[in-house]
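[step 3/7] fold_predict: job queued, chain A
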Amino acid sequence: MSDRTHPPGFELSGPARLRSPLILNSPHSGRDYPEHFLKLSKLDASALRRSEDAFVDELLAPACAHGVPLMRVLFPRAFLDVNREAYELDPRMFAGRLPPYVNSRSVRVAGGLGTIPRIVSDREEIYAKPLNVEEALSRIERHHKPYHAALKQLLQRVRHQFGNAVMLDCHSMPSLPRGSSEKIKADFVLGDRYGTSCAPGILDIVHKTLESFGYRVVRNKPYAGGFITEHYGAPAQGTHVLQLEVNRALYLNEQTYEKNNDFDVVAQHLGLITGALLTHLDAALDVRPLAAE
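[step 4/7] structure written:
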């Protein structure tokens, strides 16, 4: 693992000229582990990878072939989670007093998965000793805030040109959820914050297309959408966000974190979903450019 992560630690790829209102986002597939982070952690790199949505950005390659922009985070979720408020922090993790504006009482903080996570997905503590408060605040200023500023700007640009912006927020889920002894039965979980983050037709087209490939699809349970879905999803204002969780066992060996033989199949299906979604958007949202770029 390299130390290529430099501020701001994210990348936007895609055509210079927008072709549609659709955006892809992969906030948890980063795998550039900063050396100073590895030195602070008591876990080795393989253990830290359990928090990754491993290779989700690569799964989206056929989808990007439709000319859809992809925003992806390069640093790992265990280092900093952009799918959180800027300051969801656990005071027990830090040496020194946190600023008064910190949200230390969220459910995500209580579970050890705040903006600076305390644990990896199987409840192993990341750090051997408390972090300096300055370390946490620096990560937020250098990485979290620039990512969200860029994402907000991209959504505004898309909405300005097409009248609507539609983001598919892409994640992966372990086949054995944290704290459970039973494997998850769904292949995909679609989260729209119980009908509040995107137009129903967007959810329907993704659901039906996935089912046409033979996948088991559920809605909002156990994943209804995180901070990104909740914060940016505002259908009344023309911004639609749908969270997509793919079961890692479909495309990955969850013990070795190596791609399995079905990786390309799942990737191709995600590309076909994107094509179906673009067709749906053209018809259902009556998408027309409103302004020249």
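[step 5/7] annotate
The first helix runs from residue 35 to 40.
The domain at 10-77+146-284 is CATH 3.40.630.40 (Aminopeptidase).
exit 0
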